[in-house]
């Protein structure tokens, strides 16, 4: 298992994503799964940074693990409780110009992963993104 942690600020995002990508590659994850998880992690972490710590900076912890034919990326933060598995599906009907802005990030994560789990434990949000190998 590989673990990283970083400040929950937008300027930390590129380095954090590079670290996740490197960890997945070192774990032998195929390129397609790496790209899907990289995009999903980008969406999830961006949401944590923008909405999870609205009035202060915090930390984000990410761990990567391969087990039993599945790669899992676990993202933890101590921000505002939020369960993305309970978010409503976006309305994808009609013109993009007529739909409300936002709401597609969680939809994208659902489409790009094979597993999406959430729990709140010991004051932390724990989000698990899984991809079948």
Description:
The protein is an alpha+beta fold and 133 residues long. It has one domain (2-132): Heat Shock Protein 90 (2-Layer Sandwich). Helix content is 34%, strand content 29%. The protein has 3 helices and 5 strands; from the N terminus they run βααββαββ. The protein has helices spanning 13-26, 31-52, 104-112; strands at residues 2-7, 59-67, 70-77, 115-121, 124-132. The chain has a 5-stranded antiparallel beta sheet, covered by helices on one side. A hairpin with a 2-residue loop joins strand 4 (115-121) and strand 5 (124-132). Helix 1 runs antiparallel to helix 2 and helix 2 runs antiparallel to helix 3 (104-112). The longest helix is centred in the first third of the chain and has 22 residues, at 31-52. The chain is globular. The relative contact order is 0.21. The mean pLDDT is 89.
List keywords for this structure.
133 residues; alpha+beta; Heat Shock Protein 90; five-stranded antiparallel beta sheet; 5 strands
The main β sheet shows up as: 5 strands, antiparallel
CATH architecture classification: 2-Layer Sandwich
Please write the string of helix (H) and strand (E) elements.
EHHEEHEE
Number of helices: 3
Q: Give the strand line-up of the largest sheet.
A: 1-2-3-5-4
Task: Kindly give the count of domains.
Answer: 1
Could you tell me the CATH topology label: Heat Shock Protein 90
Task: Tell me what portion of residues adopts beta-strand conformation.
Answer: 25-35%
Kindly provide the name of the CATH class. Alpha Beta
Integer-rounded radius of gyration? 15 Å
The termini sit apart by 16 Å
Fraction of helical residues: 25-40%
The structure class reads: alpha+beta
Q: Calculate the mean pLDDT score and round it.
A: 89
Which homologous superfamily in CATH is the superfamily? Histidine kinase-like ATPase, C-terminal domain
pLDDT below 50 for ≥5 consecutive residues: which ranges? none
Q: What is the 3D shape?
A: globular
Q: Would you report the number of β strands? A: 5
């Amino acid at each position: 298992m590989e673990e990283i942690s970083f400040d929950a600020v937008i300027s930390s995002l590129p380095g954090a994503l590079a670290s996740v990508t490197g960890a997945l590659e070192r774990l032998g994850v195929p390129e397609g799964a790496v790209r899907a998880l990289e995009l999903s992690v980008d969406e999830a972490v961006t949401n944590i940074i923008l909405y999870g710590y609205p009035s202060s900076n915090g930390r984000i912890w990410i761990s990567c693990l391969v087990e039993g034919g599945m790669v899992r990326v676990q993202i933890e933060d101590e921000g505002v409780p939020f369960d993305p598995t309970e978010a409503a599906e976006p309305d994808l009907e009609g013109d993009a110009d007529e739909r409300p802005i936002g709401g597609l990030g969680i939809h994208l994560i659902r489409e790009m992963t094979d597993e999406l789990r959430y729990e709140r434990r010991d004051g932390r949000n724990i989000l698990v993104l899984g991809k079948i190998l």
